[in-house]
């Protein structure tokens, strides 16, 4: 059996997915990115390949697509495809009914409109400011002296919301520290942070053409407080993906790899 790989070399995490010929996920890996994207991709690929008994090394993959921040540094990649296209395809594989995505990565936020075949209809990106990204949430969790998981659930118990006025990550952190020092309820401060990020997602949702529902991808999609805030602020349903939302880029890349080889085989047969 042939296997197809997708490696999403992100700024914060590197993800790898391996599909078999039927499109079944044979292996998947999520690991913290190193400074060197080549080493990050190598480590993720090796760990994923080790999960597949029929594979000995990454070079044994029938086709490999690199994507993400460091996509041009993925070793042995046969092709590089943008993370926007790969996230759209990954979500299409997970749920073909979804037409709108907000992808919250380590350093940027994207709104993506998805066509019926998983291709991109339109997109918008905010890569000028770190506010609302994965890095932003890491900073906020650090200010609360909590893990990301603890922080993501904190706002769910809030009875009120304390607005966060600062738009910059640095200033927002200072504002949060001041509020904590004043003895304000931490869950209400957290609710203010989540609401602030949800409001920043409004433009992205509009650009993605979201009307009644959308999907979140990226590591921040696991943030329960953010999901709740988006549903309240945007008045729109956030659809849960049955596959880890952080893997969508790598999954889409692997599916592109599978389609590429199937297309090549078909062309060869037609010839």
Would you mind describing this structure in some detail?
This protein has helices at residues 37-49, 83-94, 134-143, 148-154, 169-181, 186-200, 202-207, 224-234, 248-270, and strands spanning 3-9, 13-20, 25-32, 63-67, 79-80, 100-104, 109-114, 120-126, 213-217, 237-239. It is of the alpha/beta class. The chain has two domains: 3-87 and 246-270, ATPase, nucleotide binding domain (Nucleotidyltransferase, domain 5, 2-Layer Sandwich); 99-240, Nucleotidyltransferase, domain 5. The protein has a five-stranded mixed beta sheet with strand order 3-2-1-4-5. It has a five-stranded mixed beta sheet with strand order 8-7-6-9-10, sandwiched between helices. β2 (13-20) and β3 (25-32) form a beta hairpin. The longest helix is centred in the last third of the chain and has 23 residues, at 248-270. It is globular and about 60 Å long. The two termini are 23 Å apart.
